[in-house]
């Protein structure tokens, strides 16, 4: 039974990848993940805001007589080196102790920092990079053309400065999802991770304060990702790593049948522990054995919308079968 596959062009033993989260910021967890059969690990993202916050905190501790203007650049580069340095130490240690690919993850909002951080991640030795491009189209003044331009500027420029595989992690907030994902896949990237789960806000009505909704996903959260993977897997020029709502071995199988190259898991590890990766891998192998499959390629994409089929007609047919019993 062979569960070998490729992720961003890298050979991996299992299609189950641990997605970026707090668990992947700890070297002991990373070692356990490899032992439990993770195909690869995506390290917790570096967020530009975190570094800017550290810089501001350091500046605020300076004596008021200090000349902020003169010191800003010095403090900024020192603090940013220090914050990123801790992160790069983790990557270096992970690279020295693990055999599976170690993928760095970055989330920036300024164009310059996307460039600076990406190059530094490559220098730190990670095998690939996931760009957590949470560009949220929440401003009424931002048109879909603006969002499009932002993505393509960042990707095209980054592509010139790094030569390790690059994957783009996206949210579900796009007007023209199918069209945009296809155009992204033509932009010389190696993969798309779909989707990041948005951290939703909630409101505490007693205190009348903003709070946040639970951050972990539930099994029923799989359906949006599953649908888009099935629609797009045969229409993109790069691999899909399916993320959000994968909680069981059956979910892993579904994503592969829909055409995902790999499947990322996070919430199910928070809920069941890192060792749950064994259950997922065992369940995948057991299903393959029952169905008589020796490799993933024998069934991957079998339930995807075919490359020349119209997805809208495919889904309309399913809808009519269910509701109109045609
Ligand atoms: C506690 C927590 C921390 C996370 N941190 C990050 C992060 O730093 N970068 C990132 O790209 N995604 C992050 N995510 C999102 C996950 O990588 C993943 O896309 C999302 O949780 C959906 O997958 P799941 O249903 O398997 O949880 C985080 C998720 C959780 C629950």
Topology:
Layout: E1 5-7, E2 10-12, E3 16-18, H1 27-35, E4 40-42, E5 46-47, H2 48-60, H3 68-97, E6 102-107, H4 111-124, E7 128-132, H5 144-161, E8 166-170, H6 177-185, E9 191-194, E10 201-204, E11 209-212, H7 222-232, E12 239-243, H8 249-258, E13 262-265, H9 267-272, H10 276-291, H11 311-324
Parallel strand pairs: 3-4, 3-13, 4-6, 5-6, 6-7, 7-8, 8-9, 9-12, 12-13
Antiparallel strand pairs: 1-2, 10-11
Helix pairs in contact: 2-3, 4-5, 7-8, 8-10
The protein binds flavin mononucleotide.
Flavin mononucleotide (FMN) is lined by residues 19-22, 44-45, 105, 132, 169, 196-197, 215-217, 221, 243-246, 265-267.
Runs in which pLDDT lies below 50 for 5 or more consecutive residues are: none
The percent range for helix content is 40-55%
Shape, principal axes of CA atoms: globular
Strand content: 15-25%
CATH superfamily: Aldolase class I
Per DSSP E runs of 2 or more residues, the count of β-strands stands at 13
| Main sheet record | 8 strands, parallel, barrel
In short:
This protein is an alpha/beta fold and 326 residues long. 46% of the residues lie in helices and 16% in strands. The protein has one domain (5-324): Aldolase class I (TIM Barrel, Alpha-Beta Barrel).
Describe this structure in words.
The protein is of the alpha/beta class. It has helices at residues 27-35, 48-60, 68-97, 111-124, 144-161, 177-185, 222-232, 249-258, 267-272, 276-291, 311-324, and strands at residues 5-7, 10-12, 16-18, 40-42, 46-47, 102-107, 128-132, 166-170, 191-194, 201-204, 209-212, 239-243, 262-265. 46% of the residues lie in helices and 16% in strands. The protein has one domain (5-324): TIM Barrel (Alpha-Beta Barrel). It is built from eleven helices and 13 strands. Helix 4 packs parallel to helix 5 (144-161). Strand 3 (16-18), helix 1 and strand 4 form a beta-alpha-beta unit. The structure holds flavin mononucleotide. Flavin mononucleotide binds next to loops. Residues 19-22, 44-45, 105, 132, 169, 196-197, 215-217, 221, 243-246, 265-267 line the site of flavin mononucleotide.
């Amino acid at each position: 039974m062979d569960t070998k596959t490729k992720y961003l062009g890298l050979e991996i033993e299992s299609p189950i990848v641990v997605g970026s989260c707090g668990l992947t910021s700890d070297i002991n967890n990373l070692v356990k993940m490899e032992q439990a059969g993770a195909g690869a690990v995506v390290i917790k993202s570096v967020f530009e805001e975190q570094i800017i916050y550290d810089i501001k905190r350091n500046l605020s501790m300076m004596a008021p007589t200090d000349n902020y203007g003169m010191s800003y650049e010095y403090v900024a580069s020192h603090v940013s080196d220090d914050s990123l340095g801790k992160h790069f130490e983790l990557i270096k240690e992970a690279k020295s102790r693990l055999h599976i690919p170690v993928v760095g993850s970055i989330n920036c909002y300024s164009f310059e920092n996307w460039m600076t951080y990406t190059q530094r991640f490559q220098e730190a030795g990670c095998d690939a990079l996931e760009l957590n491009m949470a560009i949220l189209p929440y401003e009424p003044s931002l048109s879909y053309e603006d969002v499009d331009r932002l993505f393509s500027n960042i990707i095209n420029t980054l592509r010139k400065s790094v030569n390790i595989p690059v994957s783009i992690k996206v949210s579900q907030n796009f007007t023209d999802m199918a069209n945009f994902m296809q155009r992204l896949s033509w932009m010389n990237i190696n993969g798309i991770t779909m989707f990041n789960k948005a951290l939703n806000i909630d409101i505490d009505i007693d205190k009348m304060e903003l709070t946040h909704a639970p951050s972990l996903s539930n099994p029923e959260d799989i359906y949006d990702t599953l649908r888009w993977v099935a629609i797009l897997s045969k229409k993109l020029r790069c691999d899909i790593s399916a993320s959000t709502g994968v909680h069981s071995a059956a979910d892993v199988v579904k994503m592969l049948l829909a055409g995902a190259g790999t499947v990322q898991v996070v919430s199910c590890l928070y809920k069941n522990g890192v060792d749950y990766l064994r259950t997922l891998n065992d369940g995948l192998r057991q299903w393959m054995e029952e169905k008589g499959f020796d490799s993933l390629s024998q069934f991957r994409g079998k339930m995807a919308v075919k490359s020349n089929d119209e997805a809208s007609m495919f889904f309309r047919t399913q809808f009519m079968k269910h509701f109109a019993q045609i």
